[in-house]
């Protein structure tokens, strides 16, 4: 594993942020073209309709992305939880959220690059294994697995992790921007649980990076940017097995998230580190506590 990581670092040393941004834009162009094709078919067949649901999810997408862009988590968890409360099955809820996240994380990632919130070395350590984990999780939940089974255990773990992060913020100990240990393995687990549990890439990966002493601004920006690639390829699996459904929910989340993404990235570059630790920890405890409550009762 160490040799693979060293080879990866050497292979990616010459890759620039500009090249990463261009790759993201090209991938987005492909998915936009495909979705435009599907939407034209819906309009032609007269099956595309909109009501107040679109505006409800536009507001939800806006709020969730402001929080996610600023704190590096909560978009998937909050949106998936709400969709399931609307009676949408776990697999379709996860598919809808990941489809919308292609656009929101793309804009958020480009914004983080602009505000210099990225650790390039860490980015390449987490993006490949994170994508592999997400693709595997998307495949299993689409055809074989019920992601609700492991949700309580993930939530309990995150509550403990959130409490530790708050402790670090309150203690206000000076933390150097440390080298993160086992980042590829962490990303593999985070990507897998993200698609299986309908959200969790941010809470799991960002939280662990912060608990290891990573600078909050770089941790949040790097995780958000890597998330674009994770959601992109996970969505490809969802589309293959499940198709694209609930268009007005997806488009509402996309519109709201796209509007909010630059705001969240800007906030992450400005918020005090100690405040970030406290806000991230509190958010993890609230969202994970609610998920645990809903899973048990």
Automatic annotation (TrEMBL):
GO terms for cellular component: plasma membrane. InterPro entries: TM_pro_TauE-like (IPR002781), TSUP/Inactive_protease-like (IPR051598). It is found in: Cell membrane; Membrane. The chain crosses the membrane at residues 20-40, 52-77, 122-141, 153-171, 183-204, 224-242, 249-269, 275-293. Keywords: Cell membrane, Membrane, Transmembrane, Transmembrane helix. It is a multi-pass membrane protein. Its main location: membrane. It holds the Pfam family TauE. Belongs to the 4-toluene sulfonate uptake permease (TSUP) (TC 2.A.102) family. This is Probable membrane transporter protein. It comes from Flavobacterium zepuense.
């Amino acid at each position: 594993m160490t040799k693979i990581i060293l080879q990866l670092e050497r292979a990616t040393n010459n890759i620039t942020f500009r090249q990463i941004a261009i790759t993201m834009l090209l991938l987005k162009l492909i998915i936009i073209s495909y979705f435009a094709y599907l939407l034209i078919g819906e309009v032609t067949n007269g099956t595309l309709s909109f009501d107040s649901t679109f505006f409800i999810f536009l507001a939800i997408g806006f709020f969730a992305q402001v929080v996610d862009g600023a704190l590096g988590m909560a978009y998937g968890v909050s949106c998936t939880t709400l969709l399931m409360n609307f009676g949408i099955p776990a697999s379709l809820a996860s598919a809808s959220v990941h489809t919308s996240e292609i656009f929101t994380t793309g804009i958020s990632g480009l914004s983080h690059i602009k505000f210099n919130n990225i650790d390039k070395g860490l980015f390449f350590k987490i993006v490949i294994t994170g994508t592999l984990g997400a693709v595997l999780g998307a495949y299993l939940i689409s055809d074989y697995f019920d992601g609700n089974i492991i949700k309580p255990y993930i939530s309990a773990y995150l509550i403990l992790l959130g409490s530790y992060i708050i402790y670090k913020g309150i203690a206000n100990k000076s933390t150097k921007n440390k080298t993160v240990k086992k980042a590829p393995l962490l990303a593999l687990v985070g990507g897998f649980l993200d698609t299986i549990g309908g959200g969790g890439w941010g809470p799991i990966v960002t939280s662990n990076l912060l608990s290891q002493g990573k600078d909050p601004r770089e941790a949040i920006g790097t995780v958000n940017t890597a998330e674009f690639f994770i959601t992109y390829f996970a969505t490809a699996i969802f589309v293959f097995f499940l198709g694209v459904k609930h268009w007005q929910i997806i488009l509402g989340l996309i519109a709201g998230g796209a509007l909010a993404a630059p705001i969240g990235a800007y906030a992450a570059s400005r918020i005090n580190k100690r405040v970030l630790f406290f806000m991230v920890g509190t958010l993890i405890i609230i969202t994970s506590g609610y998920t645990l409550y809903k899973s048990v009762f």
